[in-house]
Structures are given as C-alpha cells and as structure tokens.
Specification:
Blueprint lengths: L8 H13 L6 E3 L2 E3 L13
Antiparallel strand pairs: 1-2
Amino acid sequence: MRVVRGVDASLDEEAIRLVRAMPKWRSGVLWNKPVRASFTLPIAFRLK
C-alpha cells in the first residue's frame, strides 16, 4: 500500500490507517480465475 500524492505525512498516515480499517476486499476475477488488480482510492480530508 502506498500514497500516490500526499499532502502531509500525518494525513498520509491517517489515510493508510483508514484503508487498513476497511473490510477485506474481494479479489479481482477474470474468466472465473483470481487475478491481480490495483485500485486508486481517492481520499479527501476536510480540515476546519
């Protein structure tokens, strides 16, 4: 897992923590066989 475009180290750490806390994802499937898949998950922080 990596941060593609970070803003600040503390926000990057929080984004990684949030993704790790998510439920397990289902693997990619192609023709009924599991395949490697990647996904970029956009995370927006709203600071007040």
